[in-house]
Write a structure and sequence with these properties.
The complex is a heterodimer. By secondary structure, chain A is of the alpha/beta class. Chain A contains nine helices and ten strands. In chain A, the strands form two sheets. Chain A has an eight-stranded mixed beta sheet, sandwiched between helices. In chain A, strands 7-8 form a two-stranded antiparallel ribbon. Chain B is an alpha/beta fold. In chain B, helix 3 packs across helix 4.
């Protein structure tokens, strides 16, 4: 269903007239940001050919916690990445290990690694490591919020330069994200009945490696609830959570509006800059997403670019200091 | 991942002495240039990669795939080490182009998926042969232990090409023209002795996860373990090189210690007998008293390269 939604979203994107202009960016494919199980985790890095604003957008290529490099096609790029590129952002389109093989608790560390990788490599690319925004829709929205609320910390003494920097992001803009798996649609309702026996099931079919047998074994029901709690971004909100924009339809049956509302309410209570844009009558994805992508770009402009001027950036940073 | 150490450890241990004995090759000019992380396929969003080691001398036109695997665990990190250079350097010195192919690992991935990875890598390398300055029908494969098993599978049971596939890669042959490998498992159903099942049990109990075969349950949409005995046996046959031997197979060299407890030399003897029966050029070099890896294993690369010289020459079989 999530995938379906993602496909529908893509379908609606297809309906948009694609800009007939020349590409105003360069694309470097398959930059390896990490390794897992013998494979490489990759991102495609898009750089505007014109003036850069020094900030970076991490765009999560994810729908239903499935991720495919193949989906980064011209229409995807034009609809979802171009709005940022046109304003001078460097965009990293991050692909992650997908369900059914990888479950959400295995995916979240990959996203963290991607952000760390971007931060560690920003200074050398003339970019500001402390101006990183994250963006995604649906599962990509969930992963964006999770990263924003639960970033990995820097390990200054690590032998791996990527691990010497944090996974923090400085702003989030996302579409219809699940935020609270244990209170889904209302209090004390888990998301499980909705995903049970659907194509989404494997993402939440948590398994852990058994030390004795080295086999992946299903977790107990108690453990499942613990994991669902841990994976819910709403449980990690603090006053340090970065500025957050959520765009959401009020007729979304897959990710109810309540998910965004409760999240935003908690952000407000913690005095975090936030905004919820409700799209009346819209479901899980809609045609003509262009103006909404501009809104995300506005959000990043306001919250990533405000602090410093391009001239006095990247003065001190862990990856530099090492 | 700590539990996947045993096999890895096994291979590293086998290699450690090599490392210790390795000449200070850094002092001399390297015989290759290395290009990292060529993506040859995708698996569940993750990228499958190989590194190319190109000879600094004029390439001889043949490619050798080194299957980077120990215990069906692949370690891309290994490829930049002096230890790995002890395998690559002799090949590139003799002007082979070396492809160090990594695969998705157990415990996350199982042997049938890994075999699929290796097949894809051969097709990919063949498809891009011109770019890599090799002749498409002069590809050899080598590896040790699990890497030997995967090499043999590729040699003896390549997946057939699919001429009608929309994916151009699947229209390319995954055959190799020669195999040379060290101490490979060859028959998981007759392991060490007739009737001994080692599918993640017995001698190979530590590698259970590699044999923990899963499939999508259409009802629950989750990946579930295959438990049916008959099906497991069939998979055992499918993934055992010994059951796929025919007269069209490529020349096969195996090097094996006769004191190997992890992969008994019986495994190699078994395939050698079958290869001989169908007149496929083959040779078993028995290392007297050696176990699963030996001290001067790098010195035996000469035998491997002689084999490739002989069978990857300009006249393909």
């Amino acid at each position: 269903m999530f995938l379906l939604a993602a496909l529908l979203l893509r379908g609606s994107v297809l309906a948009q007239p694609s800009p007939a202009t020349q590409p105003s960016y360069t694309r470097r494919q398959d930059v390896v940001y990490g390794r897992v199980d013998g494979t490489a985790l990759t991102m495609d890095v898009f750089k505007p050919t014109g003036k850069r604003n020094g900030a970076i957008i991490v765009y999560l290529v994810s729908g239903g916690w499935m991720s495919s490099h193949d989906s980064i096609r011209p229409r995807f790029i034009n609809a979802l990445l171009r709005p940022f590129l046109d304003r001078g952002y460097v965009v990293c389109a991050v692909v992650h290990g997908s369900q059914p093989k990888f479950t959400i608790p295995e995916i979240t560390p990959q996203i963290n690694r991607a952000v760390q990788y971007v931060r560690a490599n920003a200074p050398a690319a003339g970019l500001n490591p402390d101006e990183i925004g994250i963006c995604g829709a649906s599962a990509g929205g969930h992963l964006s919020l999770y990263q924003a609320t639960s970033p990995g910390t820097a390990h200054p003494s690590s032998s791996d330069p990527v691990e010497r920097v944090s996974g923090e992001v400085q702003a989030v803009a996302c579409f219809f994200p699940p935020t609270d798996f244990l209170n889904y649609g209302g209090p004390n309702q888990t998301c499980m009945p909705l995903v049970h026996k659907t194509i989404l099931a494997p993402a939440l079919d948590f398994r852990e490696l058994d030390d004795e047998s080295n086999l992946w074994v299903p977790v107990t029901e108690k453990r499942r609830v613990e994991i669902l709690r841990e994976l819910s971004p709403i449980n990690h909100i603090t006053s340090h959570t970065p500025p957050t924009l959520i765009i959401q339809g009020d007729a979304d049956r897959l990710v109810p509006l309540q998910q965004a509302e409760s999240f935003i309410a908690k952000l407000k209570a913690a005095h975090v800059d936030c905004e919820l844009v409700v799209k009346p009558g819209l479901g899980h994805g809609w045609p003509m997403i262009g103006p909404d992508m501009e809104r995300c770009a506005d959000w990043f402009d306001a919250h990533l670019l405000k602090k410093t001027k391009p001239d006095n950036r990247t003065t001190t940073h862990p990856s530099r200091a090492e | 991942m700590t539990k996947s150490i045993p096999f890895l450890l096994a291979i590293l241990l086998s290699l450690a002495p090599v490392f210790a004995e390795a000449p200070a090759s850094s002092a001399t000019a390297p015989s290759y240039t290395r290009q990292q992380d060529i993506v040859y396929g995708r698996s569940y969003g993750a990228a499958l990669t190989f590194d190319i080691f190109r000879p600094t001398g004029k390439p001889n036109g043949a490619g050798v795939i080194f299957v980077v695997s120990g215990g069906w665990v692949s370690t891309p990190e290994l490829l930049g080490t002096p230890f790995f250079a002890t395998f690559v350097d002799p090949l590139t010195t003799r002007r082979y182009t070396v492809f160090a192919v990594c695969h998705a690992c157990q415990p996350k991935f199982q042997i049938p998926e890994i075999i699929g990875n290796i097949n894809r890598s051969v097709r990919f390398i063949r498809m891009h042969a011109a770019e890599y300055a090799i002749v498409p029908n002069r590809i050899g494969i080598m590896g040790a232990s699990a890497g030997g098993h995967l090499s043999l599978m590729q040699g003896l049971a390549p997946e057939p090409e699919k001429p009608d596939s929309p994916d151009p890669l699947l229209r390319v042959s995954s055959k190799v023209q020669a195999v040379a490998c060290f101490f490979p498992p060859t028959d998981f159903l007759n392991y060490g002795k007739e009737g001994e099942n080692a599918m993640g049990q017995g001698i190979l109990a530590a590698y259970k996860a590699a044999f923990d075969f899963r499939e999508m349950d259409p009802k629950t949409h989750t990946l579930e373990r295959i438990t049916d005995e008959a099906r497991l046996k069939q998979i055992g046959i499918d993934i055992s090189p010994a059951y796929h031997i025919d007269a069209g197979d490529p020349p096969t060299l195996i090097l094996h210690g006769d004191a190997d407890h992890l992969v008994p030399i019986q495994q190699s003897e078994l395939v050698m007998a079958k290869l001989k029966a169908v007149d496929v050029p083959c040779d078993l070099y028995v290392k007297k008293g050696a176990g699963h890896g030996w001290k001067d294993i790098g010195a035996d690369m000469g035998r491997v390269i002689d084999w490739f010289d002989k069978y990857l020459s300009n006249s393909p079989r």
